[in-house]
Design goal:
Helices cover 37% and strands 26% of the residues. By secondary structure, the chain is of the alpha+beta class. Strands 1, 2, 3, 4, 5, 6, 7, 8 and 9 form a nine-stranded antiparallel beta sheet that branches. The protein has a five-stranded antiparallel beta sheet with strand order 11-10-16-15-14. Strands 17-19-20-18-23 form a five-stranded mixed beta sheet, sandwiched between helices. Strand 14 and strand 15 form a beta hairpin. The longest helix has 53 residues. The chain starts with a helix and ends in a 10-residue tail after the last helix. About 2% of the residues have low confidence.
Length: 540
């Protein structure tokens, strides 16, 4: 409606006084066809909707009409003054070549829109009719045009298709029993959401179109809703108050201030109805009605409430699961630290914690592993220290599944010429020798064996599963051979350190590690003094 009114004001600007009595500045109407066509092309381009039709019919029979049918496709209808035929042309736009398509008889002065505007001497809406070219209901907003002496020069009109309004109603999000429609004040249907047509055919005259009244509709819901609205309007004639039309659409559409509402029983339960009357200065008098079963309405509300509740419960459940997962993740790593503390206390070998975190727990794990390394290992050689080795051997002995079959051997290794290294090369070089000896011992042993620095230049080798002297001697000879190999000193010289090795077997030589170490130590000193194998001296 705004488009239609704006298009008319481009071709024929306001000339009559408005509601406040103010008369607009007069803009003369074009006195030649060229200037008139120019204004009509501008009006067509203002609102480039396909199907928009702008036309002018003069009192002398002259007619100019432009219809957009595509982005750059127009149909132009021209008729000169008098009673001659009109000519339909194809055009690509203003100032382009026009191609004649057809010639037909068309008298604009007999059209409904021309008669209503010229006789009423004001803007007027035509009656609803079917545009055969698009097979859609349309109506025309027409405006009389005056000359200098207040004589009528003709009528300018803009066509308005009801297709967008019909599509809007049909696209409304309503329940399956809901209905929305627009009707004229006399009950003639304009558009509806259930696709009812405002036109029908007379029995026996299928080619003749007649208006369909709401009272004759096949929809009981539409009929009863309309009856309720009519009763309300009869009882409340002042229900629709004239609004301020200063900002209204092109034809001066009033803004309705009051909503008509009511309800009636039906086969679908209680039907809730809302309606509003829409009027304007050009004679429009429509009533928009929406009817919805209360059960559908409350069902939609309840469905929304239930969905919100379910969504809320789902969010709470997800939050709990997420929180539980985070808690388990945190507690899992804390439990690892707790087990590690217990492992240190019991002598159990400490496995890698595998705690890769950047928070306080991660820092605590790193600190704990560093502390555990200092507690269990020798700082110089990174071998196990004496206490750690003793604790691990005791732990394995206590936790063995078959204690009566538990067997192991220990070797006591003492370097022969370590004091000479310190005296000749210094203590820093002596530290390098101790590190090299530790590496050679680790490389000479099995994967399950352990080596620890006992103190100074003394080392202990733990051989789990070794139960006889022959096996222990074989390993000690391998160690002896490895340690007898010369060591490259920092000055480029080679030095042969050598070692003396004494051994003991569990349980043959003792039932506790301290006793075994004493036996192995005594045998080591015997080897150092007299030579011979690691088991050459029996304990006293």
């Amino acid at each position: 409606m705004f488009d239609a009114g704006a298009a008319l004001r481009v071709v024929a600007p306001d000339q009559l006084p408005d509601a406040t009595g103010k008369t607009p500045t007069r803009i003369p109407f074009p006195n030649n066809v060229g200037r008139l066509e120019e204004r009509m092309w501008i009006a067509t381009g203002l609102f480039p909707a396909v199907g928009g039709f702008v036309c002018f019919g003069g009192v002398d029979g002259q007619f100019v009409g432009i219809r957009r049918i595509g982005a750059n496709e127009f149909r132009v209808r021209l008729r000169g003054a008098g009673d001659g035929p009109s000519h339909l042309y194809r055009s690509r736009g203003p100032s382009t070549e026009m191609i004649l398509l057809e010639t037909e008889e068309y008298e604009p002065r007999e059209q409904n829109w021309y008669v209503s505007a010229s006789t009423g001497m004001r803007d007027a809406w035509s009656a609803l009719f079917v545009d055969e070219s698009i097979n859609e209901p349309v109506m025309m907003l027409a405006r009389p045009v005056y000359g200098d002496n207040r004589s009528v020069l003709g009528v300018v009109a803009r066509e308005l298709s009801l297709k967008p309004l019909r599509e809007y109603l049909q696209a409304l999000s309503m329940d399956r029993h809901g209905l929305a429609f627009v009707a004229e004040s006399n009950g003639n249907l304009v558009v509806s959401s259930n696709s009812d047509s405002p036109f029908g055919s007379l029995p026996g005259e299928p080619g003749k179109k007649v208006r369909v009244n709401v009272q004759d509709s096949g929809s009981p819901l539409m009929r009863q809703s309309w009856q309720l609205v009519q009763r309300y309007l009869q009882q409340h004639p002042d229900a629709v108050l004239a609004g301020d039309s200063a900002g209204s659409p092109g034809a001066g559409l009033d803004q309705p201030r009051q909503l008509i509402s009511g309800a009636f029983p039906s086969e679908f339960g209680q039907i809730e109805v809302a309606a509003q009357v829409h009027r304007d200065a050009a004679g429009l008098n429509w009533i928009a009605v929406v009817a919805l079963p209360r059960s559908d309405f409350w069902g939609a509300i309840n469905s929304g409430v239930y969905k919100s509740l379910y969504l809320g419960l789902l969010v709470i459940l997800l939050a709990l699961l997420f929180g539980y997962a985070i808690l388990r993740w945190a507690l899992r790593d804390i439990r690892k630290l707790t087990l590690a503390v217990r492992s240190i206390g019991s002598g159990r070998p400490l496995a890698k914690l595998n705690i890769d975190r950047k928070d306080e727990i991660g820092e605590l794990a790193e600190s704990f592993q560093e502390m555990e390394r200092h507690l269990r290992t020798d700082r110089l050689t990174s071998l196990l220290n004496r206490d750690s080795l003793i604790a691990q051997i005791e732990f394995r002995r206590r936790t063995d599944v078959e204690p009566h079959l538990f067997r192991f051997a220990v070797l006591f290794v003492d370097l022969d010429k370590f004091k000479q290294v310190n005296d000749e090369y210094g203590h820093d070089e002596g530290d390098r020798v101790l590190i090299e000896v530790g590496l050679r011992l680790q490389n000479a042993l099995r994967k399950e064996d352990e080596v620890a620095r006992f103190g100074g230049d003394e080392f202990i080798v733990y051989l789990p599963g070794v139960a006889d002297e022959e096996s222990a001697l074989a390993i000690s000879e391998k160690i002896y051979a490895v340690l007898n190999k010369p060591i490259l000193m920092s000055n480029g010289e080679y030095f042969q350190i050598g070692a003396s090795i004494g051994g003991a077997l569990y349980p043959a030589d003792g039932l506790d590690l301290e006793a075994l170490l004493k036996v192995a130590d005594k045998r080591m000193y015997s080897v150092k003094k007299f030579g011979g194998p690691a088991f050459s001296v029996d304990p006293e």
